[in-house]
Amino acid sequence: MTVTANWRGQLRVADIITETPSVKTFRLKPSPGDDAFPFTFVPGQFLNFAFWIGGARMNRSYSISSSPTQRDHVDITVRREPRGAVSRHIVDLLRIGDPVEAGGPVGRFTFDGTEADSIVLIAGGVGITPMVSITRYLTERSWPGEIFFLYGCRAPEDFIFQKEVAALQQRNPKLHVAVTMSRAEGTDWKGLRGHLTKEVFAQTIPDLVSRRIHLCGPPTMMESTKAILIGLGVAPDQIKTEQFGTPKPAPAAPGTALKQTAAATGPLVTFSKNNKSAKVHIDLQSGDSPPKQSVLELSEELAIPIEFSCRVGTCGVCKVKMTSGEVEMEVEDALDSSDKTNGVILACQAKPTNDIAVEA
Ligand SMILES: Cc1cc2nc3c(=O)[nH]c(=O)nc-3n(C[C@H](O)[C@H](O)[C@H](O)COP(=O)(O)OP(=O)(O)OC[C@H]3O[C@@H](n4cnc5c(N)ncnc54)[C@H](O)[C@@H]3O)c2cc1C
Ligand code: FES
Predict the structure, then answer these.
(1) Whose CA is nearest to atom 3 of ligand 2?
(2) pLDDT band at 208 (very low <50, low <70, confident <90, very high)
(3) Nearest Cα residue to 160 out of 16, 23, 15, 17
(4) pLDDT, tens only, 238-275
(5) What's the pLDDT at 247?
(6) 225 lines ligand 2 (CB under 6 A)
């Protein structure tokens, strides 16, 4: 598939669909005057959005839930987090006709049918969004492979895309769906109950170890599911995952917590555009090597603006160019080979191992 990368611009909300009491789908179309849709994407990719909320610019990523075969729109499906800054803004306040600033498409959590001859899609909660895009696409393309779609949510009212999944099942005999609910007591749910367990995988997916697996959901569900899959003999590199971001709220000044307990005796970071330098804080108690503080956290402490979204190395919003020195990055999914050749780092992941200079 041809994909346009690095697009940034405005889309407009063309429709809003209520999926569950806390989840809405936003159909995005080009702004009036733009004829063609400005980018193409692979199912499983996401967009990076920027919103101005209370005078602050906030970036968040949302997976595309529609299929790339729909050429005149993309859908994002957003769960309202009870105390979330951006998701509440989107779900409560966005109206049809509103413009939204977006960029992308981004992400490697993709599947278009060329990578394997069958696919297992395991989702929890709002992690269903990239899986629905993939399933819609494969169904519309009459992809001949088997699709095993496993979904876990709390109760029937939280089942996002329930009707859509049923409709896809009607259309696609190769689509096998299993849904389990952890809090279905007192409801009329007739399907599986409880969490996704090894028994559920054994019952629903023949030959599990030979199949490619995509996994996306709440962090605890992803950890336990991965452990189960590996315990069942699945090779770790067969399991592709997408983190939807930090489960913890981003602190007002994320460097602060570490600063209080740690000494600023680490490598020196020079932010060349802002003409500021400071040493990173090292948590001496845990004897960390490399230091725990990231370039992004240090920049926040120094009030140097570096944009960010996921803080987990996935979205690429925090990319900065490093002109000297070395860093270690636990996750660098958002960097491509040209980024790496050009010294681009992810500020949220980068932990300096010696003195560095960055263009920020
Ligand atoms: C690649 C990618 C794809 C994604 N796709 C989707 C998607 O398709 N759909 C979707 O809904 N989301 C998706 N996300 C998650 C999304 O980007 C946001 O992280 C999510 O909407 C929460 O943002 P927020 O600003 O509302 O919450 P934030 O303000 O960032 O808060 C984060 C969390 O902390 C909690 N919190 C906030 N303040 C407090 C507080 N004071 N005390 C206790 N808890 C607090 C919130 O409830 C929330 O759970 C994706 C993320 C990534 C990285
Ligand atoms: S903020 Fe998303 S990769 Fe750093």
Answers:
(1) 313
(2) very high
(3) 23
(4) 999 998 865 444 454 544 555 555 667 789 999 999 99
(5) 43
(6) no
Of 344, 286, 283, the residue nearest 313 (C-alpha): 344
Domains (range + CATH), the chain:
7-106 (2.40.30.10), 118-242 (3.40.50.80), 255-358 (3.10.20.30)
Q: Rounded to the nearest whole angstrom, what is the distance from the C-alpha of residue 124 to the centroid of ligand 1?
A: 15
Q: Which ligand is nearest to the CA of 294?
A: 2
What is the b/e burial string over 340-355, where b = at least 16 CB atoms within 10 angstroms of the residue's CB? eeeebbbbbbbbbeeb
Element (H, E) at 106: strand 99-106
CA of 145 to the centre of ligand 2 (A): 34
Residue 85 Cβ inside 6 Å of ligand 1? The answer reads yes
Mean pLDDT of 60-83: 96
Structure token digits, residue 320: 């900065």
Among the atoms of ligand 1, which is closest to the Cα of residue 79?
11
Nearest atom of ligand 1 to the alpha carbon of 109: 1
Pairing, β 212-216 against β 175-181: unpaired
CA angle 214, 228, 334 (to 5 degrees): 35
Whole-angstrom Cα distance, residue 354 to residue 21?
Answer: 49
64: pLDDT strictly greater than 80:
yes
Nearest to 175 by CA among 150, 148, 212, 213: 148
Average pLDDT on 116-131 reads 98
Whether 216 lines ligand 1, by a CB cut-off of 6 Å, is no
Q: What is the DSSP string of 14-62?
A: EEEEEEETTEEEEEEEEPTT--S-S----TT-EEEEEEEETTEEEEEEE
Residue 287: predicted pLDDT: 53
Ligand 2 centroid from CA 318, angstroms: 5
Mean pLDDT of 82-103: 96
